[in-house]
Amino acid sequence: MVALAPATAPRRAARARLWSPDKAPWPYLALPLLLIAALLGLPVLRIFWQSVHHVVLTAPWEGNDFVGAENFLALVQEPAFLRTLQLTVVWTACSVGAKLLIGLGGALLLQRPFPGRKVYLTLLLLPWVTPAVIAAVSWRWVMDGQSGWINAVLLVTGAIREPISFLGQETTAFIATVVVDAWLGIPFMVMTLMAGLQRIPDDIIEAARIDGARPVQIFRRITLPLLRPVLMTCVLLSTVWTFNSFQVIWPLTKGGPAGATATLPIQIYETAFGSFDFGTSSAMAVVVFAILMAVSLLYWRVLKGGEE
Amino acid sequence: MTARRTLPEIGRHGALILLLGFLLLPVWVMLKTSFTPYDRLYVWPPEFLPTSLDLGNYARALFGQYRVIEALGNSLIIAGTAAAISTGFGFLGAYGLARFRFTGRTTLLFLVLATQMLSPVVIVIPLYEFMIATGLLDTYLSVILCDTALATPIAIWLLHGFLLGIPRELEEAAMVDGCSRLKSLWHIILPVVRPGLAMTAIYTFVHAWSDLIFPLVMLTDDGKWPVTLALTRFVGENVIRWDYLMAAGVVTTLPAAVLFALVQKHFTRGLVAGAVKG
Q: What region, left, alpha or beta, does residue B64 occupy, with left being phi > 0 and alpha being psi -120 to 50 degrees?
């Protein structure tokens, strides 16, 4: 602060007011904001700085020269990176789509009271309270290529003769990681969408029914438009979380086989802590920022557009 | 009940049972396997129901050479400290944002929410360098700081919502009576917001408890590993000890599940109603 300036009376009074716990928010905000600035704000700036510099942690003798857009150009020219990008988008879309469809279905089935609803709701929460790593490990055992339960059931019922190595083949591994990620995210979808559905006044739906509207019409013309803000927010949050997902894929496949499940977060981790190329991994991180920012802006525009 | 009403009901239960079957499958398999001795894991025909309630896997996973009990202790230290700091800081921040009008307030709220876009995998890169620079690498504190950094904005956001739900009149009445803001904060707000604090603490605790990426990057000394990381010990060169792994998984999930059940109770109690009643 301005400790060297001669503290005139009004200035001292202003400063006292600024830090008065009765009048100003700063005595309360200072510590938390300092923590967030130091441990999140500075790191983000650091990522942007590193993305335009040459930084390989294990090769300090190469120096940390400013390289401009070189890191980004290298990424764009790399077919593997573009494949990763495409893979991440498709993977996210599949997982969010599955969560949304199943979540909306579950919310519609559970929104009104009926006998046994409480039991369903309680059991439904189980995936939510299971740590992602534990869920991934447990699913890995369920989908085990030799004696996993899925193989056991398929073999016993005679659907297959030879066990399938679900996590060992590219297509099945991709589907498997989507399934596990969707599994973790469904309870959140059901709960929030159900809360959104319950906010829609009953009399609107009742009035439509009396006017002779069919259930499908009511859903499309009344429920869905009114649910839109909640729905959009759910989809945005879910998209961000899914896009950033690391804790599901890493324990399941570590990105394999042959990179079939190596989404951007996996690739960033590999580049940063496998080859210690912090410059390139920071450039990838900036790409992630840009994509998520674009998704958020799109969300904002669609949401605002819907309100007009 | 007529057939017209019964049929959709059957459909509803059918669909829900199908959904729950999918959601409970890995949980059931984890429980079943945790009670199954290793030599019975690969029997044919496969067993889908537990044949015994043998707790041997639990005993050997927790106290045997794999030392899961020690890892649970590490998780408790890390998640407990992170939850305490982020809830305390979160309350301070939330109070400042909820009870004062000042320029930049909405921007700050937006920034708090925007941190949710940060992926731990991304932010861990500069944080790793930070821990090297400060000599904190491979200490509990390094993981605690990382978890706290990501949890504090969430805590601010959650508690901000809680504080907005508490009528201002409560404190204003006290302040008119000559109570200072800090005093009314302590004597009036804090008791009312306690369920919110508990919920936030639990939420941040479960987050840190479940975290993998920060310990994976920060901790090389496996004596400090939290349980999420310690599970990798069961994955050997050629063999995976599913029996121990699943027992350890149940033990790791249980605290999170129980804590979450506690939060549920606070939700249903009706916060605002309780706040006005006192």
A: beta
